[in-house]
Amino acid sequence: MTSRFPCPSSRITTSPTRGESCARSALPSTSEDRYMSYTFHLPDIGEGIAEAEIIRWLVGPGDQVVEDQPVAEIETDKALVEMPSPATGQVAELCAPEGAMVQVGERLIVIADGSAPTPAERAQSVDGGAGAPPAGSADHTAQSAHGSGVQKRPLATPATRRLAREVGVSLEGLAGTGPGGRISDDDVRAAVHGAPQENSGPAGAAATERSLPESGSHQPARLTEDQRIPVRGLRRRTAEAMVRALRDIPHTVAMHHADVGDLLALRKTLLPGAEAKGIGLTLTPFLVKATALALAQFPMANASFDDSAQEIVVRARRNVGFAVNTPDGLVIPVVKDADRKPLLAIAREVEALTAAARTRTVAIEQMQEGTFTISNHGPLGGNFGTPIIRAPEGGILGFGRATPQAVVRDGEIVARTLLPISYSADHRLVDGDVVIGFCQALIALLEAPVQLLVEEG
């Protein structure tokens, strides 16, 4: 699923003007400014998103575009999305450079309806014709592809384009197997593993031998001098959100262990049946389900603090987000109504959302409406931590690595598999009784996991 901005006809503002352009217009004003152009603004897509960052422009001034053609990759604090063109015409101006933050309602791009001369033609009329490219030049040839004046661009998501760049595969001429001929990650991987491609020279051969990048891989390089890395995209959004959360939310943290020996045994029992259905059964679905059921017992742990109204909002639904590590930073897809869903349904959803998050194709609506978040950093080798709450939620759980430890049971020292649990809560919403009560309810569910198999109704 490709993340896209909402339907242009309902969300993106179109402002027909005569000769209108942005501050750095590519079309100089002359007496011939009698054409129609359309200015498109950053739409309000809800969920408190007030701004977005221009990651990459896919078109430039003078390019011809068709309706619904992707023209930019834009990142919000929720997702990396493609912005489609709401109309067919010619790009008159890009209203913000790559890396710029654009507020909701600000102008993004101006598209002329085709009645205006191209920027080159207008420049020629101003300077008396100097510098006009000769007929049949490469510029003209590129613009006349397929005889339509619209340059055909391979259909692919931003994540697929990034993957192709990383492994050295050209999308030009690559046949897409997705809807409408869209090129998928699998198509790129097939090209890497031997399907015929245009880049058959030495560079292409080297790319074929190269392995696909893995999420979270770290290859330290020896630096001879300090390196400055621009903070952009998801990393920028995450940094801003973390600063706001620690500044505005008074965190209180509780840490506990849960004996998950029976939980791991249950997973081992269920695993063959899940795999037979094509479901990957990790520990995360159990944690999502247990968290949702514990939230149902302690509604205040599933609340939010409304600063503007000075009200506590107790959420009716238990929508549990879970952190997914990607090369660009953490992405938080959401399992909605997790307390009401069967465990294997949650497992299937977690698996699909994780794959979409790691390829940055997760849809905006799949990351909205979260009421609580969990972070399972156990696979990374983590233990306890102090997870930071994702506003406007009221709490977050961090789960570490389950390890065998010596404990005392009935006066005897025995080995048990213990799971570290760290719970950060908004102290404006809850006091110690709720914090401890919620943790004990969660631990009880994890230590008697058969309760996670009971379905509602």
Features of the shown structure:
Dihydrolipoamide Transferase; five-stranded antiparallel sheet; Chloramphenicol Acetyltransferase; seven-stranded mixed sheet; alpha+beta; 457 residues; 11 helices; globular; 20 strands; OB fold (Dihydrolipoamide Acetyltransferase, E2P)
Structural description of this entry:
This protein has 3 domains: 1-151, RNA polymerase II/Efflux pump adaptor protein, barrel-sandwich hybrid domain (OB fold (Dihydrolipoamide Acetyltransferase, E2P), Beta Barrel); 154-209, Irregular (Dihydrolipoamide Transferase), CATH 4.10.320; 250-453, 2-Layer Sandwich (Chloramphenicol Acetyltransferase), CATH 3.30.559. Helix content is 27%, strand content 23%. It has 11 helices and 20 strands. The strands form 5 sheets. Strands 10, 13, 16, 17, 18, 19 and 20 form a 7-stranded mixed beta sheet that branches. Strands 1-2-9-7-4 form a 5-stranded antiparallel beta sheet, with no helix packed on it. The chain is globular, with a radius of gyration of 26 Å. The two termini are 32 Å apart. Residues 7-34, 128-151 and 195-216 have low confidence and may be disordered.
The beta-strand count equals 20
**Major sheet:** 7 strands, mixed
Low-confidence spans: pLDDT under 50, at least 5 residues? 7-34, 128-151, 195-216
pLDDT average, as an integer?
A: 79
Proportion of residues in extended strands: 15-25%
